[in-house]
Write a structure and sequence with these properties.
By secondary structure, the chain is an alpha/beta fold. It contains twelve helices and five strands.
Length: about 280
């Protein structure tokens, strides 16, 4: 991303005054560009739409939409964490430092995730869930774990839930069974599964309500969701930290049990079935 911005900066001297205003605005607000229309950028920069088009042309893009996509791709690329593995990482002092930092970041991720906006969104989620005929949870790769776990948690509360995960490869078939009176709860974390993005776009076009659990507003699925939970996944190594997401799911479960008597009744019935079927080991 830094190289991309430097490229804009180096070419500024060749721009006209109006186009230079566009370049300045974009360098100062680049993270907002994926969510802006060409009119938004022109208004914010104090220039005409034509000047924005000229800027895109100067940067060798055929249209603003192409430039906007390039900006989104660059921003997403900066979100991908890399971990440099070398011998220095395996010294005893280094190992202890890594463990301490992992713990610190995990605690921070939980606090960042359980912010007032997400807490308020839990109430909105249950408003959607209560109206839904069927709830579908969706996630691929690592996110498939959260989709499956969430379907388990919600079924325990008496809701009708089915996961859409890679499984035997019938996820497209399952997607076609979703209707406008259902609800889709999707999980999509960096690096984002292309199939999930495509499926959410299709579901959005079919006017199906979508709840998205993701790591950043720059997630390519963000624009298709009716309700978004943003989970902090900061890490110092290659694998993202998902403790914030797990804390969110635990909070959703706790909220349901504490606010809906029918959910408590479903859990009581479930416990009786566990006993009747001798599901768990008892000494």
């Amino acid at each position: 991303m830094q190289n991309f911005l430097e490229k804009i900066q180096k070419r500024q001297s060749a721009f006209s005054p109006a186009v230079r205003k566009v370049a300045t605005y974009i360098m100062e607000h680049y993270s907002d560009i994926p969510f802006c229309t060409i009119t938004d950028v022109a208004t914010a920069a104090g220039v005409s739409v034509t000047s924005v088009i000229k800027f895109c042309t100067e940067m060798q893009y055929s249209a603003f939409s192409e430039f906007k996509q390039a900006m989104q791709d660059h921003i997403q690329q900066t979100l991908i964490s890399h971990y440099n593995i070398n011998d220095d990482n395996f010294t005893e002092a280094r190992q202890q430092s890594v463990l301490d930092e992992v713990t610190r970041l995990d605690i921070e991720n939980i606090h960042r995730t359980m912010n007032p906006i997400n807490q308020e969104n839990i109430k909105k989620f249950f408003h959607l869930a209560e109206k839904a005929h069927i709830i579908y949870t969706m996630g691929f790769r690592t996110s498939a774990i959260f989709a499956t776990y969430t379907s388990l948690l919600l079924r325990m509360q008496g809701l009708t839930v089915f996961p859409i995960t890679p499984g035997i490869g019938d996820y497209i078939d399952k997607m076609l069974t979703v209707h406008s009176d259902d609800l889709v709860m999707a999980f999509s974390f960096n690096r984002y599964s292309k199939d999930v993005v495509k499926m959410l776009k299709t579901l959005h076009d079919r006017k199906i309500p979508i709840v998205l659990v993701t790591d950043d507003k720059l997630s390519p699925s963000y624009v298709y969701a009716d309700l978004v939970f943003t989970c902090s996944t900061r890490t110092q190594n290659y694998v993202a930290s998902y403790v914030g997401c797990m804390s969110l799911l635990n909070s959703i479960f706790a909220y349901g049990i504490s606010h809906y008597k029918s959910y408590v009744k479903s859990l009581s019935q479930l416990e009786q079935f566990y006993s009747d079927y001798e599901t768990f080991y008892e000494p």
